[in-house]
Amino acid sequence: MLEVKNLSVNRGIIQVIHNISMKADEGRVIALIGPNGAGKSTLLQTIAGINHPSSGNILFNGNDITQLSAHRRVEMGISYVPEDRKLFPNLRVYENLKLGAYASSAREKVKDTLEYVFNVFPILKERKNQLAGTLSGGEQKMLAIARSLMSRPNILLLDEPSQGLSPLMLKKVGEVLKEIQEVGVTTLLAEQNVHFALQNSAFSYVIESGAITLAGESCSLEKNSYIKEAYLGL
Question: Which residue ranges form the domains of the chain, and what is each CATH number?
Answer without folding.
Answer: 1-77+154-234 (3.40.50.300), 86-152 (no CATH)
